[in-house]
Specification:
The complex is a heterodimer of chains A (about 350) and B (about 200). Chain A has about 350 residues and is α/β, with parallel strands linked by helices. Chain A has 13 helices and 12 strands. Chain B is globular and about 65 Å long. Classes of the chains: A alpha/beta (about 350), B alpha/beta (about 200).
Chain lengths: ~350, ~200
């Protein structure tokens, strides 16, 4: 493995294929997700991350169930989330689910926490969206303690108190999953990640690079401020999204009908305008390599790059073809990203490295 | 140096909304200059930004051109905002611009409001539509706004001429702007980050 991790993240949406009008069933979509994750390992990617949503048209309400199944069917792939809702899930349940997943997968798991962007999820789970920020701070504080302290005595505002509570099972090798904090828009999450010395994942894909640059540089400054290391040692992940064909014009022609009606950016700017303003790359594998290498110019050398490939209603066959090409792209990115990488920039965090660090510190 | 930004939501070319905006800007400049201030004005026409505004609404971010307009507004010392009256309110494009403008852009901003319409019967649009919009955005709205109906641009005898109303609005606005003092620009980004810092370090 190189210093950086490369992988894919899935939103888990069911979107009609605009070129055929066909909508996959929930079962088809879930099994397609399995095929996509298996393919990711086959083509040499490092990470598969799933979203968490609690309403149609999404099928990813139970991420650790999916990831547990995937862990059994793979050998090397690291699993993560994009994101796990820290606001509406019970931190005790998050700690339990990810502990079990750690044991089953042999440590091939980390977690990305987020607030979620679907308002009604809060009341569905008995929470108040106006408390989103205090909920995030309090619940994450409890989650950290559950993973780090043998016996937890805890009282807070948003959950029934815990007295004499011990998480079972304990984290694998006594090392909790690495935590990323994912954010689309707000610097609050960057501040939270910096405060705890955790990773910061900038969604990146819906915004111009200038916005991501500001967020990441803010996180790096604050990481240093809180004494976790230099700004260059902060742990940064980025999203990206691509559609590739060998011939770049073929990629544009094939992807345009999907882009034009895509749930997030459809019915707005043209494909050309959107690709000029955001990380979306539609073209040849070489174009994807070049654009992705450019991300370092505004966020610095970073640790994890995840791509969105199963979106906008693309059929499974097409997504698997995308992964074949992405495997080639990543092989080249590994070499190029390692060039001129300063020695002080840490490698992507893995369970093995964290266990080794713990042992050498002991 | 006092920078006035003028936002005009007129849709036609030539536009009576733009005409009113220019006259309000000239009047405000005259009265501010009389107080010894050196004034520059910058114009933001919304019509050429119409597609960018719609895109920002669906995408959640602004393209470079719209970002520049945002900066022109947020960095100003004062704003003059003029819209045509459509269906008993401000025009949709005008409202959309302020809907996508980043939070805190208008906080503490002295604003002079103006509107145009086919008939003087819509003149209260200033009071029931524009004033609450800018109050909500935490701007300081000048008490005197100007509504211009089509016939104001011609000759009428039964009400004060448009020139007089524009002059009075400019004078009132100049007094308001200078008494507001130096505007301190606020940043939603910095304030959100600071709020989180306080939560984490109680």
């Amino acid at each position: 493995m190189s210093a950086m991790q490369f992988g894919i993240f899935s939103v888990g949406d069911i979107t009609p294929d605009p070129t055929t009008g066909r909508t996959p069933t929930e079962h088809e979509r879930i099994m397609a997700t399995v095929a996509i994750a298996e393919k990711a390992e086959e083509v040499g990617l490092d990470v598969f991350a799933t979203g968490e949503h609690h309403n149609p048209p999404f099928v990813c309400s139970s991420p650790t169930t999916l990831l547990g199944f995937l862990a059994a069917r793979t050998n090397r792939l690291v699993f993560s989330t994009s994101t796990t809702l820290i606001t509406t899930n019970d931190p005790v349940k998050i700690a339990e689910d990810f502990s079990v997943l750690q044991h089953l997968s042999g440590g091939r798991v980390d977690v990305m926490l987020g607030r979620g962007n679907t308002g009604p999820v809060y009341p569905w789970f008995g929470e108040d969206i106006r408390q989103a920020v205090p909920l995030t701070v309090e619940k994450y504080d409890l989650l950290r303690r559950l993973w780090r302290e043998e016996v937890v005595d805890w009282e807070g505002k948003f959950r029934t108190p815990l007295h004499g509570f011990t998480l079972a099972p304990r984290p694998l090798d006594g090392v909790p999953p690495f935590v990323w904090h994912g954010s689309i828009r707000t610097p609050e999450i960057a501040e939270l990640a910096a405060f705890h010395g955790d990773g910061f994942f900038a969604n990146h894909i819906f915004w111009p690079g200038s916005h991501t640059e500001r967020m990441v540089q803010f996180y790096r400054r604050r990481f240093e401020h809180y004494g976790h290391g230099t700004a260059a040692q902060a742990i940064v992940g980025l999203g990206g999204q691509v559609f590739m064909r060998r011939n770049s014009q073929d990629a544009v022609t094939e992807f345009r009908p999907y882009f034009d009606v895509a749930p997030v950016y459809g019915h707005g700017p043209s494909l050309e305008e959107f690709t000029a303003q955001t990380p979306l790359t539609v073209g040849s594998p070489q174009q994807v390599v070049e654009k992705t290498l450019g991300f370092r110019e505004y966020v610095g050398d970073y640790q994890r790059q995840l791509f969105l490939v199963d979106h906008a209603g693309l059929p499974l066959k097409t997504v698997l073809e995308q992964l074949d090409l992405l495997g080639e792209v990543v092989a080249e990115l590994r070499v190029e990203m390692d060039k001129d990488r300063p020695a002080e920039v840490p490698d992507a965090p893995t369970h093995e490295a964290r266990v080794a660090a713990k042992e050498s510190a002991a | 140096m006092t920078q006035l930004t003028v936002v005009s939501g007129g849709l036609r070319e030539p536009s009576s909304t733009r005409l009113l905006a220019d006259r309000l800007a000239a009047s405000a400049t005259r009265h501010l200059s009389a107080q010894g201030l050196s004034v520059t004005t910058r114009m933001v026409e919304l019509r050429p930004l119409a597609r960018s505004i719609a895109d920002a609404m669906t995408l959640g971010f602004a393209n470079a051109e719209l970002e520049e307009a945002f900066e022109t507004v947020a960095s100003a010392d004062g704003l003059i905002a003029v819209t045509p009256a459509f269906n008993a309110s401000y025009g949709g494009l005008f409202k959309s611009f302020f809907d996508v403008l980043p939070e805190e852009s208008l906080t503490d901003m002295p604003v002079l409001i103006g509107a145009t319409g086919g008939t003087e019967r819509h003149s209260l649009v200033l009071e029931h539509a524009l004033r609450p919009l800018f109050s909500y955005l935490r701007a300081v709205v000048a008490p005197t706004g100007v509504y211009a109906a089509t016939e104001d641009f011609g000759v009428t005898s039964d009400q004060p001429p448009l020139d007089d109303r524009v002059d009075r609005a400019g004078a009132d606005y100049a007094r308001l702007l200078s008494s507001c003092g130096q505007r301190v620009r606020r940043s939603a980004f910095d304030e959100e980050a600071a709020r989180m810092e306080r939560l984490l370090n109680p």
